[in-house]
């Protein structure tokens, strides 16, 4: 059976330069290749990859409500990631919460309104 080797989220953004700066400067991603002059930014951090495509006339993700969720990222230390991002986010993210489904989570919004959720598996204590 064929294996799925990698994934990339493809996100429409209104201002490619500003969105690329957010993903690099705030979220800690790096540019994989290219310089954005072709309307695309290919970025990655660890095993997560994203393609930002400039679509200045498309409705912003912030206008599409629940459909603005684009990724759930499982991390190895959600509290450390929250602390790291909190130093750079323009608006503070709510602190991670241990949920009853066994994940400690927090979420952020990009300037375009795409919502990302980060979670770390935790051991759920039986009462």
Automatic annotation (TrEMBL):
BP-aspect Gene Ontology terms: response to antibiotic
Record key words, sorted: Antibiotic resistance
Chain ranges of the VOC domain: 5-121
Superkingdom classification of source: Bacteria
Coiled coil region boundaries: none
SUPFAM superfamilies linked to this entry: Glyoxalase/Bleomycin resistance protein/Dihydroxybiphenyl dioxygenase (SSF54593)
Gene3D superfamilies membership: 2,3-Dihydroxybiphenyl 1,2-Dioxygenase, domain 1
InterPro entries found in the cross-reference section: Bleomycin-R, Glyas_Bleomycin-R_OHBP_Dase, Glyas_Fos-R_dOase_dom, VOC_core
Family under the similarity heading: Belongs to the bleomycin resistance protein family.
The protein, known as: Bleomycin resistance protein
